[in-house]
Every structure is written in structure tokens, then in C-alpha cells.
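Handout, page 2. Input:
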Amino acid sequence: ATAIANSPTFANLQILNLSLNNIRSDGAKAIANSQTLTNLQSLILGLNYINDAARTFIRNSPIFLNTRIEF
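Output:
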């Protein structure tokens, strides 16, 4: 998740589905802090290992204010 969050390759990505990828809370926080995923319209993180605190962190991330997020 950290590699995706930091990769300029994904700068124009609009939909990111990372379901069933064994993403943990630290990876989810890396996504929430990403400076390259700013164009996402939809972020799908279902069936991973993301705790409630990390979910709240993602929901409150300024880059995802207009992004549909699914857990």
C-alpha cells in the first residue's frame, strides 16, 4: 500500500480497489497521507486488516474529502 501511495504512476488514478490485499492499518494510513492519490473518486479497501482508528484517519484525510470510500 505504501508503494502505491507514493508512486507518481498513480497520480491520475480515479478508482482504486485494494480489496483482499492484506492491507494493515499502517498501509491504510500511508494511503491517507498520499500526495499522489489526490484524484481518486473511489477508494475500496474491503476485507483488509484496517482498524477503526485507521478507518477514521482515512475518512478525515483532506485528500479524500470528495472520494467515495468503502471498507
